[in-house]
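Treating backbone geometry as a discrete language has practical consequences that deserve illustration. No coordinates are needed to read the tokens, only the vocabulary itself. For completeness, the protein is quoted in full, as a sequence line and a line of structure tokens:
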Amino acid sequence: MTGPERHLYLPDLDRQPPQRPSADRVRRLRELAEWHDEWVATWADRAGFQPAGRPADSDYNLHHVDLDAPPEAQEEFYRRAREIMGG
């Protein structure tokens, strides 16, 4: 292999091995996941499915669910998420 693309195939020798997040971060992420489940249960039936950009005969909606929650729901989610994550 020659040229500038050669480096794409070499391992990243400067990369540190992955480390487990702190117990506090794990707790916050668990709490965030629980909040997300609660939030989805509250808002899913009021969120619209937007198939824009998908072919009419696509089965995308059978495999992926992209819902657009109302702005007030998104604000609620992000406000609480920031509280949970400490931001």
Observations:
- The longest helix spans residues 23-43.
